[in-house]
Model the fold of this input.
Amino acid sequence: MKEAVILFTRVPVPGMTKTRLMPCWTGQECAELHRAFLRDELAQCALCGRDLFLFYTPADEADCLRDAAGVSLPLRPQEGDGLGERMLRAIRAVLAEGYGACVLIGSDIPELQAGHLERAFALLETSDAVFLPTADGGYCLAGMKAALPEAFSGQSYGHGAVMDGTAAALRAAGRTVSLMEPLCDVDTPEDLLALRRRLQADASVPCRETRRYLDTHRKVSVIVPVYNEEAALPAFLRETEKLPDCELLFADGGSTDRTPDLLAGYRVLASEKGRAAQMNRGAAASGGDVLLFLHADSVLPDAPVPELLEVLERYRWGCFGVSFRPGGRLMKICARQSNRRAAKRGIVFGDQGIFLPRDLFFEVGQFPALPLMEDYQFSLNLRALGARPGLAAHPIVTSSRRFGAAAGEQLRTMAQMARLRRQYRSGADIREIAARYRDIR
Done:
């Protein structure tokens, strides 16, 4: 009995595929990732040894699909109104060519292996239909020996009961159904983060193209807490040009000035006021596997992303270090002490540009819900996990506004900050400490 595999795919065209990964990923990156998925699945289909057909959409992008696939295969445009009808027509067309069974798979399951296809064909020997469910309640593989309209007619897609509804309809029609062990498809940033974790944990999964792409494309989410920052934002928004391809999120703590107007067109999240709450809000909404927390008065080095990724190759988390503008002798001493404290004691403050893998951020419990010193306690919590920070090659330049302009005022502010940290370490009420801290915004 001849058997065939149908790979059902969108053509990996920027802006038309894997769009649920945007805006965390650019349209071009989504297309490149889809191309990696496609090539990995094609490699497993080749190992399976059955005849293979690619059914694709949109119909006018056949040349792009040939280039993406990297191999010469029968290409056929998908036909029909809606996903269910398109799948039914594809199965019917292939079986009509003399195949006794066919298995249709999607193109967003990079962990699919030839063994899954072999298992599906084996189950079809005793079942009318076989499905490989996905963790989100859908399915990524459908196998049949005859085109079964009841599997597709009247079904809706994109919700968590697709598999249950499909199986129920088939069984109500007297058909036998076999279900395989679930796999995970990849549609959202959360799905992609979970895929990265699984691939890191299991080197035996043979999706070479996907591994290579993810290894060279670590997505960085940049989270900026803002509150009444209209004076600093114009310059900072120019700085974001140094963050190409990063996901950029602003967490606004209820600004009453022109901050919301200046951020029109950017992704802005409403948050309760408080730097810890705002940064946690941004992290929860982000999709990157590396998180970078910046202040709105930061001036970045020329290539911050390559620098932070280089640090994360050697350390579990890190920062850029800091220098102050306006400078002066006292501020240079302050910056040197801050950077030495980060390197030697693992204590990093927010104006140094904290960055770390997403998993570690949530493992450590996010920024503690404190009105002050959330970065100080965050560093202590990471140190308790045994995680030491590394420093990037070049520092962030940040405003010295909170220290004042005169040398005497700067000395008093530095002394006050040191005193407040000692009080915090000794167990003083953080609310009393916060009340003593001057809010210069």
Q: What stands out?
A: The two ends are 76 Å apart (CA to CA). The chain is about 40% helix and 15% strand. The mean pLDDT is 92.
